[in-house]
Write a structure and sequence with these properties.
single chain; 78 residues; mainly alpha; 3 helices
């Protein structure tokens, strides 16, 4: 599988469960829940960790898009 497709395949993991869903769990007081990293943090960094994952998701989309565009331009220089 090409790099761009690999990145696009795993991108929803940081954005949705590790970012958005975890932020809702933290806001609701649900802590130590399953595999959501932000729920295991001390009180101070819970929201920054969830926010970091929310930012990481679109960054991975951008990296995947860039990798695909780079591969396409290398195959067809026109």
């Amino acid at each position: 599988m090409p790099l761009g497709q690999q990145v696009l395949a795993v991108e929803p993991v940081p954005l949705v469960p590790q970012g958005i869903v975890a932020a809702f769990f933290v806001a609701g007081g649900t802590l130590r829940h399953s595999w959501f990293l932000a729920t295991y943090m001390e009180p101070g960094p819970r929201y920054p960790v969830a926010g970091g994952f929310i930012l990481l998701g679109p960054a991975m989309y951008g990296a995947g898009y860039w990798a695909v565009r780079l591969a396409v331009t290398r195959q067809d220089p026109h």
